[in-house]
Structures are given as C-alpha cells and as structure tokens.
Backbone:
C-alpha cells in the first residue's frame, strides 16, 4: 500500500531545500533558565538566523553522537520546528488549523524504536513500536482514542461493524506539548514556529519491576550445595561448618525464609518434608536450620552451636522442589525490592525526538496527524558529569567561637527510648563484632542540631577521606580544586606561622 505524502511539512527552523531531504527538528541549548523568552527574543531579531545558530546543541561524543544535558547541569533544551504547507512558495501553516502540536521522545534500540507507553493511568515503560507508528508518512497518532475514531472515518455506523485491531492495543504514547510562537513573532519572520521544552529527566517509572535477572543456570550456581541433588539417592554427606553457615545466610538474606513472608514460609514447608541426617538437632531440615538461625540471631556466626555433622543427600525430586520454592521466593523479593524502570535512567541509551501536528478535520472527516522526520540520535549526559557551568558556591561558617555562637539549632531529631538507650551503651568494639546490646528505656529525647555545623563537620570529614583515598585513586587533582582568595579587610599577608 502506498501512502500519499502529506501536504504539510514540519521541519527544523534552519531547514532548506526540497521536502524529500526530510530536515530534522532543531534542538537548541540555553544556559539561561528563562530560555523561552530568550528564544522568542532571538526570533524577533533581524539577524535571527545567526543568533539561533549559536544556540543549536552541538556537543558530541568521539563517535559524533549528539549529547544533551539535564537541568541539574543548569543547561536547558528546546525543540523548534517550522510548520508550512507544501504548495508552491510553501506558505506558513495557519495555527487555527492545528488541533494539537507535540512531540514524543523515543528510545533507539537494535530492533527499532520504542515509545514510553501507558494504558489509562498505568505507566508501562518502554515498549516496541510497530512499523506503522514510525513510518515517515504514516497515519499513527499517540492517542488511542484518536486512532479509534480515525479508523471509523466518516461512516461510523458502517465501519464500526468491521474489526480493525489497533496495533498498539489501546496503548498511549507519552506526548510533550509544542506551543505556537506569538503572532507578532511569526508575522515578522513569515513562518509558523512551534517550540517546546525538551525534558531529559523524569520521575516517571514503569508500574511493574523488570523481569528477575536470574535464569535457571544462575539460580543453580547460587543455591547452596546442601540443597542440590546428590549423586547418591540415599544416605548422607559431610557438610562443613562454613557450608552450613553460608546456607543459613542464603536462607536469611537471599530467600527471606525467616522474615515471615509467604514465599519464605513455602521454602521452610518444603524443608519440613525432608528428614534430617542422624545425629542432627532436629527431625527435619526445617527444624535444623531454624534452630541454627535462632542461635545466630543477634550474635552472629560465633553463636552457632548446633552444626550437623552430616547432611542428608537430597533426591532429584527433593532438590527440584527446593529449587522451585527458592526461585519463587527470589522472584517475589525481586518484585518487591527491585527499582522500577525510570524513563531516562539507562546510561548510554540513545533517543530521538519525533514532532507531529494534528490537523483539524473538515466536512465531518476525522483529524489527521502529520509527522516530521525524527531528530538525530542523541544521548543524555549523566547527572554526575560536569555541564561546564561554574560550580555552585556554598559558604561555610568560620571556625571560631564568635561565629559558631550565632549558629543555633534549626533541625531537631526525635529519638525513641530504645535508640536513646542503645546510644548510651554504644561500644565500638562490640558494635564491630556484632555483640552490642540493644537498648530499652522509658523516655526518649529531642536533639536539636545546626545544619551549618553539620555541613561543616561533613566538610572536614570529607577532606580527611579525600586525602586517605587519594592513596588508592589518585583523584585529588580532579575532585578538589582549592584557590586562595583575599579576605575583605586583610593586610594581604598570611599571619599564620
């Protein structure tokens, strides 16, 4: 099927030449937070093309890939396009004909492009887009309701009986708005500009955690030796103390068997069906591991006394049942604790911007959506890299009694009785070997602190650790730059001996 080319084009502001060149949207970079007024000011200027060219984002990787910054770098990005008709002379598009203008940010992967998708109020995360959604002159719209109405056309009653499945099954793609430049700006330039803030950071996250990152092979390598099928189908085997301790830690930390969780209890139920070896501290493996955990709880490995001298050789069926229960427990813990997928968290991921305008329908016909060519591929600079802007200055209080006496507590911590008593009994040696005493008491405390003093303490500790770790990382020339400056009223000489 051949799709007719649209009679409207949406291109970057600096685009020239024929429509077939498929010019890309212009991505601009500003260091000013009020970047929108700055952009409109540039577009009004007689030398607007030159001024605009100085704002085009241009930083690239060694592989020539465009790099865009996040707001934390104090750099801001705008998308700018020019909408016009493709008739001779390419007259500008009347904004009154536009029902909606916007853009989407898509992730580029090996299989194609992915959209940040949702269904109703649920965020689903990055999902593969069908070819119809990314075609140059396709009829795709990010809004599922628009797609549904468009599929019915003008003959709703007739076409509603035909089954026209939505390739995206009702999913919606996240859209960011584009705004038409004011009439005086468009009239001055003889163009219809649309602009929008390009968001390169987001709190959006998928409703569901990603799939657990362990397969059966990895799981088999993680399961302790005592829970794996033995070569002999009967009898017992010798299990070292360290192997037994590692098994208890695995059940406690990885599986959560002693937390009361449903999945952890299922693991213990399976162990209850397996008899222990002769001479053990319990009749089943469950009683053996629970007694050992009780001895270790609160005092660490040194409290373990009930170490079985022999361990039963699990049959293939028993080992399979244990492995299945462990996998279910690990999966449940992953689903509960794994971080949800955030929109722009992938370091090294690449993206494109795709701009569209939705044109109002005429004579009862549905609206149509016109897409521009996708932008060039770009990556987002991680938050921890420098954006090239001057550092933010934080003034610390002077380290003298007169200055410090003015710093009153401005934050208070409410300390419960048990924590207060624990702090009173705190012994670093006992804390390190795991034998510290837990506190108890009948009253708590409210402790007030000065945030500037806390900041000063943190700064001093930071300096100590920077110097200590410099022995390993040799990083002082990169992470600390100290430049002396004259203090107002000083004589210009350092009075320190």
Residues:
């Amino acid at each position: 099927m051949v799709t007719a080319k649209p009679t409207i084009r949406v291109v970057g502001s600096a685009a020239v030449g024929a429509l077939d060149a498929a010019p890309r949207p212009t991505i601009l970079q500003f260091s000013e937070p009020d970047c929108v007024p700055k952009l409109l000011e540039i577009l009004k200027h007689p030398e607007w093309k030159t001024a605009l060219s100085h704002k085009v984002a241009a930083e690239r990787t060694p592989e020539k890939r465009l790099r865009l910054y996040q707001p934390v770098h104090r750099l801001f990005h705008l998308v700018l396009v020019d909408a016009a008709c493709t008739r001779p002379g390419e007259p500008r598009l009347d904004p009154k004909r536009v029902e909606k203008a916007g853009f989407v940010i898509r992730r580029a992967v090996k299989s194609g492009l992915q959209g940040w998708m949702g269904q109703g109020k649920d965020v689903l995360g990055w999902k593969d887009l069908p070819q119809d959604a990314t075609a140059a002159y396709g009829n795709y719209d990010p809004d599922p309701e628009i797609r549904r109405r468009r599929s019915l056309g003008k003959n709703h009653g007739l076409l509603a009986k035909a089954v026209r499945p939505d390739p995206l099954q009702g999913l919606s793609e996240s859209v960011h708005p584009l705004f038409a430049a004011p009439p005086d700006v468009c009239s001055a330039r003889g163009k219809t500009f649309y602009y929008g803030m390009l968001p390169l950071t987001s709190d959006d996250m998928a409703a569901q955690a990603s799939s657990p990152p362990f397969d059966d092979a990895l799981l088999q390598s993680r399961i302790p030796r005592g829970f794996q099928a033995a070569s002999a189908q009967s009898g017992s085997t010798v299990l070292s103390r360290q192997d037994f301790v590692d098994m208890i830690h695995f059940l406690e930390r990885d599986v959560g068997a002693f937390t009361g969780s449903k999945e952890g209890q299922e693991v213990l139920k399976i162990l209850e069906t397996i008899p222990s070896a002769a001479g053990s501290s319990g009749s089943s493996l469950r009683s053996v591991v629970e007694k050992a955990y009780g001895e270790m709880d609160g005092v660490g490995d040194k409290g373990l006394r009930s170490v079985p001298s022999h361990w039963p050789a699990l049959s293939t069926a028993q080992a399979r049942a244990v492995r299945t229960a462990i996998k279910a427990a690990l999966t449940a813990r992953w689903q509960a604790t794994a971080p949800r997928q955030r929109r722009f968290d992938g370091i090294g991921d690449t993206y494109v911007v795709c701009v569209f305008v939705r044109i109002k329908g005429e004579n009862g016909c549905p609206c149509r959506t016109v897409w521009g060519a996708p932008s060039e591929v770009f990556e987002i600079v991680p938050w921890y890299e420098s954006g090239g802007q001057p550092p933010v200055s934080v003034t610390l209080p002077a380290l003298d009694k007169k200055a410090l006496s003015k710093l009153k507590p401005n934050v208070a911590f409410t300390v419960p009785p048990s924590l207060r008593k624990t702090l009173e009994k705190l012994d670093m040696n006992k804390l390190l070997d795991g034998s510290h005493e837990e506190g108890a008491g009948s009253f708590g405390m409210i402790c007030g602190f000065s945030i500037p003093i806390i900041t000063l303490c943190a700064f001093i500790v930071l300096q100590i650790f920077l110097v200590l770790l410099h022995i390993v990382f040799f990083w002082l020339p990169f992470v600390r730059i100290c430049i002396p400056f004259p203090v107002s009223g000083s004589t210009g000489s350092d009075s320190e001996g």
User: Anything to note?
Assistant: The first strand starts at residue 8 and ends at 12. The chain has 16 helices and 18 strands. The mean pLDDT is 84.
